[in-house]
Amino acid sequence: MKRVLITGGAGFLGSHLCDRFIKEGYHVIAMDNLITGDIRNIEHLFPLPNFEFYHHDVSKFIHVSGDLDYILHFASPASPIDYLKIPIQTLKVGSLGIHNCLGLARVKNARVLIASTSEVYGDPAVHPQNEDYWGNVNPVGPRGVYDEAKRFQEAITMAYHTYHGLETRIVRIFNTYGPRMRLNDGRVLPAFIGQALRGEDLTVFGDGSQTRSFCYVDDLVEGIYRLLLSDYAYPVNIGNPGEITIREFGEEIIKLTGTKQKLIVKPLPTDDPKQRKPDITRAKEILGWEPKVSRAEGLRITYDYFRSLPDEELYKAAYHREFVKK
Ligand SMILES: NC(=O)c1ccc[n+]([C@@H]2O[C@H](COP(=O)([O-])OP(=O)(O)OC[C@H]3O[C@@H](n4cnc5c(N)ncnc54)[C@H](O)[C@@H]3O)[C@@H](O)[C@H]2O)c1
């Protein structure tokens, strides 16, 4: 049985990856300090003999006994609210955390795949963004702690590949959504749906003309799985090229939820990217991958998930937003 370590395994994406590797017959070890994750995302896996959970901070020395075939480094605060609240931990997990994973990979002779992000492109001057574009990032702006951590993470991973000959893979993930996102993580989709469910108006930051491209989580996981098993060491964009303005997206959520509320406008945060759309030519050519789930279908599944949550989750979300504003 192949063995895989997934850091950030109790998070949104990490938990879906745990499910996928269990389904593929792997022994899965999830490592997480639960700083933004939730144990409930992986609770259903605890009875399985081929699943283990280590409650541990990846930025500290990591040890796993036995063999390891693959390490997937997904531990990192991932939403603007999270990384503005815990900026130093964000920088540490993107630097010390990946250094620990790469060291472990060398000892175990394992292949490493890292979760990078479209944020390495910053506020892009090239559209759509392809992997050869180097980005437009403000290192000292509020988003710098996340964007630069991810850029460093790519650089050190590539250095281990070229200098030590380690097998490495880099996925640049564009906005992904689906069940197990947190209602209070500040990302646009849970924010809109949470507001609709609480009967509040939906907040659009800026004039709403900025664009995003949303990928359903199952499509992303398929792309990551193919990339891990490929022999390609350079970055690959995985995302859905279906681009939409935030205003249009808000209108789609109003229609989906049937809320009587409307869109309201607030000032745009600093360094908010104006456009986001992956060029997925490389993923198509190298992995034979492209997204399959339409936005209508993915949003319906995600909305059903949020609707099934207990009421206190909805109000915890509202409280969290107030807390962050202070
Ligand atoms: N969701 C997206 O749209 C998206 C887009 C681009 C990149 N990514 C990347 O994917 C990864 C997962 O994102 P997500 O959306 O699932 O976020 P998430 O917050 O749900 O998951 C991150 C997980 O990492 C854990 N974690 C954070 N710091 C840790 C540490 N020092 N030690 C151990 N565990 C730690 C958290 O507790 C959480 O469970 C992140 O690296 C993120 O940067 C996500």
What percentage of amino acids are in beta strands?
Answer: 15-25%
Question: Would you identify the CATH architecture of the largest domain?
Answer: 3-Layer(aba) Sandwich
Cα-to-Cα separation, first versus last residue: 50 Å
Please identify which CATH superfamily of the largest domain we are dealing with: NAD(P)-binding Rossmann-like Domain
Spell out which ligands are present: nicotinamide-adenine-dinucleotide
Count the domains: 2
Average pLDDT rating:
94
Helix % is 40-55%
What structural class should be given to the helix and strand makeup?
alpha/beta
The name CATH uses for the topology of the largest domain is Rossmann fold
Main location: Golgi
Pfam families: GDP_Man_Dehyd
Membrane topology: Single-pass type II membrane protein
Enzyme class: lyase
What does this structure look like?
The protein has a 7-stranded parallel β-sheet, sandwiched between helices. Strands 7-10 form a two-stranded parallel ribbon. The chain has a two-stranded parallel sheet with strand order 8-13. Helix 4 links the parallel strand 5 (111-117) and strand 6 (168-173). Helix 3 runs parallel beside helix 4 (144-164) and helix 5 (188-198) crosses helix 10 (311-325). By secondary structure, it is an alpha/beta fold. The protein has 2 domains: 3-176 and 216-238, NAD(P)-binding Rossmann-like Domain (Rossmann fold), CATH 3.40.50.720; 178-212 and 241-271 and 293-325, UDP-galactose 4-epimerase, domain 1, CATH 3.90.25.10. The protein contains 10 helices and 13 strands. The chain starts with a strand and ends with a helix. Mean pLDDT is 94; it is low at 321-326. 40% of the residues lie in helices and 17% in strands. It has helices at 12-23, 80-85, 87-108, 144-164, 188-198, 217-229, 246-257, 281-287, 295-307, 311-325; strands at residues 3-7, 27-32, 51-55, 70-73, 111-117, 168-173, 176-177, 202-205, 211-213, 215-216, 236-238, 243-245, 263-266. Bound molecules: nicotinamide-adenine-dinucleotide (NAD). Nicotinamide-adenine-dinucleotide binds next to helix 1, helix 3 and strand 5. It is found in: Golgi apparatus, Golgi stack membrane. It is an enzyme of class 4 (lyase). It is a single-pass type II membrane protein. One of its GO terms (biological process) is D-xylose metabolic process. Pathway: Nucleotide-sugar biosynthesis; UDP-alpha-D-xylose biosynthesis; UDP-alpha-D-xylose from UDP-alpha-D-glucuronate: step 1/1.
